[in-house]
Amino acid sequence: MKTTSAIRFSGLWRRRAKPFRLTPTEKISAVMLVLLSIFMLMPLVYIFNNALKPYQELFNYPPTIWVRNPSMQNFIELWAITKNSAIPMSRYIFNSVFVAVATVVLVTGVSAMCAYPISKHKFPGHRIVFGSILVTLLFAPETVAIPRYLVVSNLGVMDTYFGHLLPMVAVPVGVFLMKQFIDQLPDELLDAAKIDGAKEFTIFLKIVIPICMPAVATISIIAFQDAWGNTETSTLFMQDETMKTFPFFISTLTSNMANNVARQGAAAAAALIMFLPNLIIFLIFQSKVITTMAHSGIK
Amino acid sequence: MLKAESKPINSLDATAAYNTARKTQSLLKTIWSYRVSYLFIAPFMICFILFIMIPVIAAFCLSFTYFNSLQPPRFVGWDNFRYMISQDLLFIKYALPNTFKFSVIVGPGGYLAAFFLAWLISILPRTSRKWFALAMYSPSLTGGIAMAIVWQPMLSGDRIGYLNSFLLKLGLVSEPQLWVTSKEYLMTSMIVVTLWSSMGIGFLAMLAGILNVNSELYEAGKLDGIRSRLEEIWYITIPSMKPQMLFGAVMAIVGTFKAGGIGSQLSGMNPTPEYSGHLIVNHINDYGFIRMELGYATALSVFLLLLMYVANKFCWSLFGTKEDE
């Protein structure tokens, strides 16, 4: 069973593949999917064009979808908003990039380290540990923001990068996906390494991690998206303006934007800056994500 | 006589104590032999206990207190919950029904849509699958604040808004509608935008689940007299991807109940116009971080946690694996 599934996930996209000609059901589903894709992608197309539109085009009536004279004006304006304030925009972006990268490294490392013994060692209490992770999978930690705030303030990590990082490290979904993936590893492989005298840490680094790269990639993507778009830690745990992140800066920029169109161009540029890193990272690891998700089921 | 009776009991006690001592000793020995394993899980468990377990337990404790963050918490029994269901008009009139409406449509609706889309994609030849999956998934990449900005030009309340100008051109409306700043439309806009961005990892899990169904099962099903695609989904696809269905459901529930910022992000106002987009999460933040009534706010979050728990129990009973499977 284990070997067949190992073979199976290498050819996931190829499953149920059919010859080139489309059958009627395939045609219907293709048409529906094209229509739905247009709905899904339309707002993204708008925002992409709006970000590149010069000022006069933004307020044309009737509104146009495609940009005529693309310009970088909006990005320059976004940069200029913080020119006169004490904190330049580069500071927000630096904070965001640093926090996002550090979170990805910590979350993937910590999740993998936790998942490996739960899956393969069966130490006393592993059921309780995994059970409690499964239960918290059902809760969103955001709902208990107030006690979290109390914990963070009592730990004394307010206004430090630890305040951004530590609350984000424990991601139950990360451990869960990783554990399901490691379950597929044949025990014989690990036993063979142990007989050859490999230490647990060597086995983990040299065997488990390389084989579980798809799961590592998936968790990195999830962690990056969470950290890159996160405004919670900035709002709650950071009083010092120099410690806040880029999405928080955007949210201050856009409050009351529904009535006030003055900064729409700059906001569109900011949204594009938020969106593009997510898209690029997802595109790079896409096939790995699907492979991991095949083992995501809760049994 | 008493002595004679007590003697055997004493010796029984002694053997029992000896046995438990040996048991704990051997347990400690096994635990010690697994010390590396505990070292491996330590970093996660420390953060997990600090930032997830303790907050959840603390929420349950604080929900029975009056706490304003200046004075130490004072025990008030069930008062917070009593106030919640009998006197808190904002909660009864807006937060609760809004959350109910929002989550009933977004939760199951988004979930069914995700399954349907994943199934449509799985029908297609493999070269095109990747691109459609990307198209469906990419909205969820905008999460958080970017999501509201992305929809801003679309829903803006003047005639420059794309939706307004489109409807005006068709003659369906006579004047621009306030899609995000009026109480009539805000909830609908919130639901549409959230549904739009809800094809996240739950959707990917279901897609992978469908693609992973053993194709021999389909052939066997055909021989056994399954005629329509619908029967095929019901009798083969769903039963063989139950675990992924459950994972998708859990993700959908969590995503739905934690959504709260979207109303004020879209309308640019907090609280939302006439509380039309007021959800329980907004209510918690309102009491917790503006009125500083932390005790009552945590009582509200305990209520929300219980709601999530009930919804999850329901999904486990639908898709959970039974003992014999």
TrEMBL record, chain A:
It holds the Pfam family BPD_transp_1. The chain crosses the membrane at residues 28-48, 92-116, 128-149, 161-182, 203-224, 265-285. GO terms for biological process: transmembrane transport. Residues 93-285 form the ABC transmembrane type-1 domain. Belongs to the binding-protein-dependent transport system permease family. PANTHER family: ABC TRANSPORTER PERMEASE PROTEIN MG189-RELATED-RELATED (PTHR43744), BINDING-PROTEIN-DEPENDENT TRANSPORT SYSTEMS INNER MEMBRANE COMPONENT (PTHR43744:SF1). This is Carbohydrate ABC transporter permease. It comes from Paenibacillus arenilitoris.
